[in-house]
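Contributing new complexes? Match this layout with S-adenosylmethionine.
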Amino acid sequence: MTQSADDFVYTLPGIPAMTPYDFDRATRLIKARTGIVLGNHKEDMVARNLGLYTKKLGLQKVSDYLDHLEYNTSSPEWERFITIFTINHTAFYREQHHFDILADYVKTLEKPIAIWSSACSTGEEAYSIAMTLYENISIPENGVQVVATDIDTVAVERARQGIYTLDRVQPIPQPLLKKYFYRGTGSFSGMARVKPSLQKIVEFGVANLVSGEGWPQGRTFDAVFCRNTMIYFDRPTQTQILERFAKIIKPGGLLFVGHSENFSHMTSAFKLQGQTVYVRT
Ligand SMILES: C[S@@+](CC[C@H](N)C(=O)[O-])C[C@H]1O[C@@H](n2cnc3c(N)ncnc32)[C@H](O)[C@@H]1O
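Output block (do not edit by hand):
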């Protein structure tokens, strides 16, 4: 990537260049749509993807691509645009102590039980919740539900498929891996696939935490996982989402947040229980 000293245009061979104005506009569009606040250090990556997508759409300039997005708010191209900015890093049993707390908590609940993985990425969090439920309570049909959503349609599709490389499933204890996953053979060798028996209690969908689009309507939850996601939002956006969570988490229900997220002074609707877990007051 070269950056011209004269005009600070990001150019890559074979694709349209991005100007600083394009970059600012892209970050404004993405913040308004997803809440994600992007730092300048991502300029190279954004330039590369915007250039590629502009070309793919048969447009001449990155500004044409951004015009397309801005003036066609329901264009399918938005899905691809959003994936430039989402960070999907996740893992099975990430922050293990949350699943220990969940295991104890669900034993105290009466059915029906509903848990929402609200930024589920590629599904590892949702399946870890589902395994914790199976291992700690009896699951009658329709009595237990994990709702799993993300704004990133590509990530949600991968989550729905439930196919992972063996290194990704490595944090899952061996007996659980055997119980809840098939080991791939032939063209799927080196992969593991979630069994339908586990998958059947997980309902995947696309939802935007900021706009509320796709938000589970008319439902209440015993626990919501919103981990390592609010960190990308500004404070007013975080407050707005916490207020929405307060309306759908049952009194005494739990909100699990990421290891570097702290919302203690932002709302009276939740009280910190410890270890980045909040209780709905
Ligand atoms: C770092 S991952 C966290 C995944 C998982 N919760 C975990 O902690 O392992 C952050 C996820 O937030 C999603 N995300 C970002 N903005 C969002 C929004 N406005 N609504 C819903 N999901 C969003 C991204 O697509 C990404 O998959």
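Reviewers usually confirm one structural detail per submission. For this one: Residues 34-36, 86-90, 94, 119, 121, 125, 150-152, 155, 208-210, 227-229, 258 surround S-adenosylmethionine (CB under 6 Å).
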